[in-house]
Structure prediction request, 209 residues.
Amino acid sequence: MKAEYLIVLAVSFIAPFILSFSKKMDFYKYSLRLILSLGIPFVLFVVWDFIVTSRGHWSFNPNYIIGLRVFNLPIEEILFFLIIPFCGIFTWESVKYFTRNYK
Amino acid sequence: MKEYTILAVFSIFLAIFADLVLKTKLIRNKRFWIFWGVMFILIFIVNGYLTWRPVVIYGNEFFMNIRLFTIPIEDFLYGFGLITLNIVIWEYCTRKFTKRSESKIT
Prediction:
């Protein structure tokens, strides 16, 4: 199915996204914090991905991507570098919350 | 050494370097390693699926072809570099912005 990579991203994203609005964490308290912590690694890793994809480090199975590309990268691969870090930061905040009494 | 292997290791050095320079001290924080225990499982599921189908196909001459299930070990290093860098910047900003808003109150 063409949408498979996109579905994997959506499934990863849905629960962290909804729960990120929980009042128990101040996830959106500083919008600049979210922009910088997602944005700086995003630029770095997408540039890396553009270069190594054209060198042949990896390729994307045309059966599982919708076919929209930015230069040589499927749109899914670019979204990956925002969605997976978002899930990572959410998981980090969750671990901090659940270990708040832990020294 | 293969290109992807070198770059993946480099991304870890970059994240650790950022942690040291920005003084976020995450690599010495126990909760950070608990976090990575959880993340490892989540990455294993998502990346496991992507490499098992496979959605992403790896060029043989660029990685060592040592895999955990279907996941190249370089992917774990690279994921660690990426997300640790996200968390380092997040924690750095948290400290900066919290201090600033506290000083506004007083």
